[in-house]
């Protein structure tokens, strides 16, 4: 797509010369995806400050049939935020107002460019918790989180992004503004329109603000790092933990010994929390509104796990620093794979009960397809979301390995579907899984999605080529 000079000037006039970026060097931060898998190109990056400016941009774009790619913190992993065909980038990172915190109603109203970290900090200042937590919290934004329906490590207790939203402000393709910023937990007045835009990746409208649900700050938090003999033992231990602590189980993360060794080898300052090595590990966090007694609950879970042969060894954090050290191991697992060469990544979900069988079958299928490949599964046991990544064989050529991505994905996705799972648990579809979506989703669902797209964006200007 090539824009004439006079059209560029019309768009620039909406946000002002300073916030209309045309210098390729300045644009680079908006065009490179985190893993450099996709690098986009554009003539113009627009950085509006208000919903009125976003509305004016979309009104002009719709009238002139100019394609727009909305972007938050540019932390997406499926290429949905990148302009692949020269579209205008509409970055929301100047929309950073926290419009209101209402601790009585347990809500916070924020603009789309507010980072997840700042949202959590603002909630904490009001003695509340915004319960979504992602490793990229310092750079990912609320608008991006909602547009991709992001998950995170606390979804087992609090749900994914959709679960936190009470109301939205959305600019439609023609520039109209849907003002649905209510704080109501009960509003049974017809279609729940906000859910059309959550997870739509900017293809139906651009989220500019949201009313988010807060919860009370926990008064006690306990973190345990446990060595377990198998993925099945981890799932069984989860049942014990939820039986003892219910929804107070706020995180239950799984990683392999291979993943642990990679972190210990490549991330300075990390150390093994346990004396001996174990095939698998569970990082468990339990939090409560009760200020006393939580340690006893965690110790009971630990001891029951040992008695039933589900836990081989473990450590319960004694200090905040130790808790952070446990969490750092988990948080570095995704990044450390870069040190191993090529990595073919899968963000999938299966029913929790199917996790052990899925991992075992996927491991066998991947190694059969690519001898020497190193499966690298980790993730969120509590909600069935496994990041089933595959690292290249040791010493292999990275390009040759990555050329086998379709073969590996066919094998993994086939097993995911066999177990009634999803090929995208929390990262979205973007461009990475766009062509696979019609093969795995109900045909009527795809037809309805296309109908919605045509109705809300008849000129196809919003993030074209993504999702559908």
Task: Spell out the key features of this protein.
468 residues; alpha+beta; Uridine Diphospho-n-acetylenolpyruvylglucosamine Reductase, domain 2; Uridine Diphospho-n-acetylenolpyruvylglucosamine Reductase, domain 3; Alpha-Beta Plaits; 8-stranded antiparallel beta sheet; 16 helices; globular
Q: In the CATH hierarchy, what is the architecture of the largest domain at level 2?
A: 2-Layer Sandwich
Number of discrete domains: 4
Shape label: globular
The strand count comes to: 19
Indicate the percent of residues in helices: 25-40%
Largest sheet: 8 strands, antiparallel
- From the N-terminal CA to the C-terminal CA, the straight-line distance is 19 Å
- Beta percentage is 15-25%
GO molecular function: catalytic activity; FAD binding
Keywords: FAD, Flavoprotein
InterPro entries: FAD-bd_oxidored_4_C, FAD-bd_PCMH, FAD-bd_PCMH-like_sf, FAD-bd_PCMH_sub1, FAD-bd_PCMH_sub2, FAD-linked_Oxase-like_C, FAD-oxidored/transferase_4, Oxid_FAD_bind_N
Family: Belongs to the FAD-binding oxidoreductase/transferase type 4 family.
Topology:
Blueprint: H1 5-15, E1 20-21, H2 24-31, E2 45-46, H3 51-64, E3 68-71, E4 88-91, E5 98-102, E6 107-111, H4 116-125, E7 128-129, H5 142-147, H6 155-158, E8 165-171, E9 177-180, H7 194-197, E10 206-213, E11 215-216, E12 220-228, H8 231-245, E13 249-256, H9 257-266, E14 280-288, H10 294-307, E15 313-316, H11 320-336, E16 343-344, E17 347-349, H12 355-369, E18 374-380, E19 385-391, H13 398-402, H14 405-418, H15 437-440, H16 443-456
Parallel strand pairs: 2-4, 3-4
Antiparallel strand pairs: 1-2, 5-6, 6-10, 7-11, 8-9, 8-10, 12-14, 12-15, 13-14, 13-18, 16-19, 17-19, 18-19
């Amino acid at each position: 797509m090539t824009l004439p000079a006079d059209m560029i000037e019309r768009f620039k006039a909406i946000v002002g010369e300073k916030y209309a970026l045309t210098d390729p060097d300045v644009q680079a931060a908006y065009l490179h995806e985190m893993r450099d898998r996709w690098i986009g190109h554009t003539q113009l990056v627009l950085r509006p400050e208000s919903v009125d400016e976003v509305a004016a941009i979309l009104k002009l774009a719709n009238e002139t049939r100019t394609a727009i790619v909305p972007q938050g913190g540019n932390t997406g992993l499926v290429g949905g935020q990148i302009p692949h065909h020269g579209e205008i980038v509409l970055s929301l990172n100047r929309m950073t107002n926290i419009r209101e915190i209402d601790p009585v109603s347990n809500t916070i109203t924020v603009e789309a460019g507010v980072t997840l970290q700042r949202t959590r900090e603002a909630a904490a200042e009001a003695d509340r918790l915004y319960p979504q937590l992602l490793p990229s919290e310092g750079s990912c934004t609320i608008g991006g989180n909602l547009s991709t329906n992001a998950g995170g490590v606390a979804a087992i207790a609090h749900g994914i992004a959709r679960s936190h939203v009470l109301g939205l402000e959305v600019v439609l393709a023609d520039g109209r503004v849907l003002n649905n910023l209510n704080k109501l937990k009960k509003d049974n007045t017809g279609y729940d329109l906000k859910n059309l835009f959550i997870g739509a990746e900017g293809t139906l409208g651009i989220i500019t603000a949201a009313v988010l649900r807060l919860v009370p700050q926990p008064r006690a938090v306990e973190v345990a790092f446990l060595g377990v003999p198998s993925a099945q033992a981890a799932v069984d231990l989860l049942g014990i933990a939820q039986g003892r602590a219910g929804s107070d189980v706020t995180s239950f993360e799984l990683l392999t010994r291979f993943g642990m060794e990679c972190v210990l080898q490549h991330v300075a300052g990390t150390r093994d929390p346990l004396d001996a090595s174990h095939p698998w590990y569970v990082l468990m966090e339990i939090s409560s509104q009760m200020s006393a007694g939580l340690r006893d609950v965690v110790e009971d879970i630990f001891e029951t796990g040992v008695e039933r042969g589900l836990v081989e060894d473990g450590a319960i954090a004694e200090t905040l620093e130790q808790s952070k050290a446990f969490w750092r191991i988990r948080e570095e697992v995704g990044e450390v794979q870069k040190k191993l060469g090529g990595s073919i990544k899968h963000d999938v979900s299966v029913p929790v009960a199917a996790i052990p069988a899925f991992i075992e079958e996927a491991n066998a299928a991947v190694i059969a397809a690519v001898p020497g490949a190193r499966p690298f599964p980790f993730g969120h046991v509590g909600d069935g979301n496994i990041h089933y990544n595959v690292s290249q064989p040791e010493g292999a050529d990275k390009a040759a390995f990555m050329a086998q991505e379709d073969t590996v994905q066919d094998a993994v996705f086939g097993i995911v579907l066999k177990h009634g799972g999803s090929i995208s648990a929390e990262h979205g579809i973007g461009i990475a899984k766009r062509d696979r979506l019609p093969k795995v989703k109900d045909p009527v669902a795809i037809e309805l999605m296309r109908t919605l797209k045509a109705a809300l964006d008849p000129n196809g200007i919003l993030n074209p080529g993504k999702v559908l």
